[in-house]
Amino acid sequence: MKYGLFDDARREYVITRPDTPLPWINYLGSQDYFGIISNTAGGYSFYRDARLRRLTRYRYNNVPFDTGGRYLYLRDDTSGEYWSPTWQPVRRPLEDYTCRHGMGYTIIGSTFSGIAAEVRYFVPLDETLEIWQVSVTNRRAEPADLSLFSFVEFALWDAQDDMTNFQRNFNTGEVEIEDGADPGIGGVIYHKTEYRERRDHFAYFACSAPLAGYDTQREAFLGPYQGFDTPQAVIDGRARNSHAHGWAPVGSHHVRLALGPGESRRLIFVLGYQENPRDRKFDPPGSQVINKATVKPIIARYLDPAQADAAFDALRAYWDGLLGGFQVDTPDEHTDRMVNIWNAYQCMVTFNLSRSASFYESGVGRGMGFRDSSQDLLGFVHMIPARARERILDIAATQLPDGGAYHQYQPLTKRGNDAIGSNFNDDPLWLVLGTAAYIKETGDWDILNESVAYDNDDSLAAPLYNHLQRAMGYTLDRLGPHGLPLIGRADWNDCLNLNTFSAEPGESFQTTTNMDGKVAESVFIAGLFTLAAGEMTGIARHLGLSDEAARYRDAAAQLDAAVQAHGWDGAWFRRAYDHFGQPVGSQECEEGQIFIEPQGMCVMGGMGLKDGRALQALDSVAERLATDHGIVLHQPAYTQYYLNLGEISTYPPGYKENAGIFCHNNPWIMIAEAIVGRSDRAFDYYRRICPSAREAISDVHRCEPYVYAQMIAGKDAPTHGEAKNSWLTGTAAWNYVAITQWILGIRPAFEGLEIAPVIPADWPGFSATRQFRGATYAITVRREGPGSSASLVVDGEPLAGTVVPHRPGVTARTVEVTLR
Ligand code: BGC
Ligand code: NOJ
C-alpha cells in the first residue's frame, strides 16, 4: 500500500494523505540554519547545532508522536469553524491534502470548506532564516471572513537544558513585540531569552500582513488546559496580545482575511536567527532593547513576495546544479530516481547533520561522528568538494596525537567530545577512506600538505598526510594475540562491546570499559585496514614514496595472512575474538555464527579473491543472511544477554544490531559481489533495500519511501520488513557508492575516472553524464555479451584498461563502453 507517489520531474515526493504510518519528514536548509519538517508541518529549527542553538521547541516521543511545529490555524469567522491547513495540529478531516517534499523545501496544501490554502516552507541559500509562503483562496461562491493564526513555540536555546531546568527556565523567557507600525513589516515577535546576559543572538518571527493581534505567552494563546489542537484564542477568533514574562514564550500572529469569491491572498512569515556584534547589542546603547538595525533589512527583504520567490528559484537552481553534475539513465526507474534525486539528496543531509537531528536522533545526544562523518564524505565529495575539504580538515583536527580519534565532536565548537572519548579502534581508518575519496574526486593532492592540529591543539599541528600515517599506525600499534587488530571499545558495530562486561542497568555501553582490551580482536578492522592500506599505497605511490607504498602493501599482506590463519571459519570470515580469546561469528558459537560485516569488508579489502574464499563467504551470506527485505547482520540472532558481547545482545532478536537488516552494511556485500563479478546478485541486493522499490509496501516498511532508514527489522523480528530510524545513516553514502561506483561502475580513481560497470545481465546498457575535475563525461554503456568485461573508447580512441586518465583543460569527453 502507498501513501503518495514520486514526481520525478519536479524532484518531489507527493504525500496524498496526512496520516502516514510515521511522520514522513524532510530537511530545510543547507549550510548553517536547518529545520526538520514533517508532512503535517511538525518539527523544529536550529542554527548549526541542534543542541546548543535550538530556535523552536520540539518534544520527542510525544503523543501524538509528531507534536509541535510550524503551525497555522484557519478560522471561518462567520461559523467559528477552525482547522489546520497542514492537518496537524487540529486534525480536522480535510477535503483534499497534499504534501510535496522537495529538495530543501516542503509544500503542504489542502482544502477545507471551500477554502484552499498552501504553505511553502524553505530556507533561502546563505541565510539564517526560514520562509513560510502562504496563500489562501476562497473557492466559495460567497465572500469569506477568515482569521489566520501562526504559531511557533520558542526553545530557550540549549535544547537539553530547555527540557530539564524548569525552575530557572520558567523565569527567563523574554520577548519584544512590534505590532506593525513599521511600514513594510507587518508585525515581528522577537525571542530574546538570555540576550540580556551572555547571548548575542535572538530569534524573530515576522509576518507580512497587518496584525489583528498577537500572542507570545503560550498559555494565554492555548488556554491553561488546552493543547495545540484546541487553542482558546483560535476558538474565540481573538488573540490575547499576551506578553511573555518567563514561562513559555511563543510567537503567534493573528491576521484577518476578507476574501471575495475566487479571491486569493498571499502572506509571508519569516522565522530567523540573528547575531549582533557584542558591542552593539542594544539600541539605544545602555538599554535592554535589542538593536534591530542589523535584522530589519533582512526581514523587509524576505517579506517581499518577489524576493521570497527569487530566493526559492535560487534554491531550485542550486539543486539543479548540484544534482546535474551526475545523472544516469538506466532501465530501472528506481535506480534513476535514487541516484539522480533522493539518494544524492540524503547524502547532502547526512553530510550536514551527521547523526545529530532527525525524528529519531533528538539533537541533544550526538554531535558529528568521526567515523560517521568520514563515511558520509563518500557520497558527498562530488557535490561540493570545497565543503568536503573543510570537513576533512575539521575531522582531522580532532584526531589524537597517537592516531586515535574522539568518537564524536561538536559541530559548533568543532572540538572532540570528552564525554564519549576515544578508543573505538576502527575510527581513524575511515578518515583515510574519506580523504582518498576526496583526492580521487578532485585531484587536489595539496590537501595532504595542509597543516592540521591534533586534538585541536595548534602546537601539535602536522600535515594532513601525517594524520593518515598515524591513523594507519594506530592499528598496527594495537595488534592482539592472533596478530589481528584489537577492537577497543567497539569497531563499526558500536554494539559489539567485547571489553565492556556491563552488569549494571543504565551503564552506557558507549563509555563503559571493564577489561584491559589486550585480547579482544576484530577481523572487521583487519579488512578495513587492508582497504585503507590500498588507498595509502596509491597515495604514497603518487607522492613518489615507493618505500612507504611497499610498507603499506606489506602491512596489508601481514593482516591478510593473520585473517587467513585465524579469521577464516571454513565457509566465511569470522567476526572477532572475544576477551577470552574465543571466536565470535564462528560455527563454534551457539548464536551469532556468521556476521555480515567481515564478509563485505574483507572482500572489499581484497581478501580471498585468489583462493575462492571470497566467493565462499558471499555464498554463505546468500544462504544464511539474505532475506527478501535485505541482508541481516548475523545469524542466529542472540536470544539472551551475553556479558562478554555487550549491547548487541540487548536488543530483541531481529532488531538493530541484533540481527536486524542494518542497511549500512548491505552495500558492502553489493560491492563485494560486484568485485567478484556477480552482477545480478549485486543488483538484487541493491533492490531489496532500495526505498523507492519498497514504496509499494509502505504499510510494511512504514518509513519514508524516498530515503534509506538505518534498519529494517530482520527475519527473527515479529515485524520483519519494518524500517526504523530513517534519514541519518551511513546507508545513504554507502548505497550511493555501491550503485554509482560499483554497479554502474563510474568510479573516481587517483589518476582519472574509472568506468567498469557490473550491471545486471538483462540490462542492454545505460547512459550517464558526470562532471569530473572540470570536464563533462558523456558515458554510454552497451552490452554485447553477458559478462562485465569492459572495453572503452574515449573521444573516439580505444583505451587500454578502464581508467580514463584525467586531461587537464579538456572540458567535454565521450566514453563508449562495451560490455562482453
Ligand atoms: C545503537 C547504535 C549506535 C550507538 C551509539 C546504540 O544504541 O544501537 O546503532 O551506533 O547506540 O549511539
Ligand atoms: C550507528 C552509528 O552511527 C554508526 O557509527 C555505527 O557504525 C552503527 N550504528 C552500527 O553500530
Q: Could you characterize what this model shows?
A:
The chain has 820 residues and is an alpha+beta fold. The chain contains 19 helices and 42 strands. It has a ten-stranded antiparallel beta sheet with strand order 1-2-9-10-11-12-19-16-15-14, covered by helices on one side. Strands 6, 7, 8, 13, 17 and 18 form a six-stranded antiparallel beta sheet that branches. The chain is globular. Bound molecules: beta-D-glucopyranose (BGC) and 1-deoxynojirimycin. Residues 494-495, 510, 647, 656-657 line the site of beta-D-glucopyranose (BGC).
Average per-residue pLDDT, rounded, comes to: 97
The molecules bound to the chains, other than polymers, are:
beta-D-glucopyranose, 1-deoxynojirimycin
Strand order of the largest sheet: 1-2-9-10-11-12-19-16-15-14
Q: Biggest β-sheet, characterized?
A: 10 strands, antiparallel
- Overall 3D geometry? globular
Low-confidence stretches: none
Helicity range: 25-40%
Rg over CA atoms, rounded to whole Å, is 28 Å
Q: What proportion of the residues form beta strands (DSSP E)?
A: 25-35%
How far apart the termini lie comes to: 40 Å
Structural class: alpha+beta
Number of strands: 42
**How many helical stretches?**
19
Q: How are the SSEs ordered, and which strands pair?
A:
Blueprint: E1 4-7, E2 12-15, E3 25-28, E4 33-38, E5 45-47, E6 54-56, E7 71-76, E8 82-83, E9 96-102, E10 105-112, E11 115-122, E12 129-138, E13 144-157, H1 159-162, H2 166-172, E14 175-178, E15 187-191, E16 201-207, E17 213-217, H3 218-222, H4 232-236, E18 249-259, E19 264-275, H5 296-302, H6 305-324, E20 326-329, H7 333-353, E21 368-369, H8 370-376, H9 385-397, E22 408-409, H10 427-442, E23 451-454, E24 457-463, H11 464-476, E25 521-522, H12 523-542, H13 546-566, E26 576-577, E27 583-584, E28 594-595, H14 596-604, H15 613-624, E29 626-627, E30 630-631, E31 634-635, E32 661-662, H16 666-675, H17 679-689, H18 698-701, E33 709-712, E34 723-726, H19 731-743, E35 746-749, E36 752-755, E37 765-772, E38 775-783, E39 790-794, E40 797-799, E41 803-805, E42 812-819
Parallel strand pairs: 38-42
Antiparallel strand pairs: 1-2, 2-9, 3-4, 4-5, 6-13, 7-8, 7-13, 9-10, 10-11, 11-12, 12-19, 13-18, 14-15, 15-16, 16-19, 17-18, 20-37, 21-22, 23-24, 25-26, 26-27, 28-31, 29-30, 32-33, 33-34, 35-36, 36-41, 37-38, 39-40, 39-42
Helix pairs in contact: 7-19, 8-10, 9-10, 10-11, 10-12, 11-12, 12-13, 12-14, 14-15, 14-16, 16-17, 16-19, 17-19
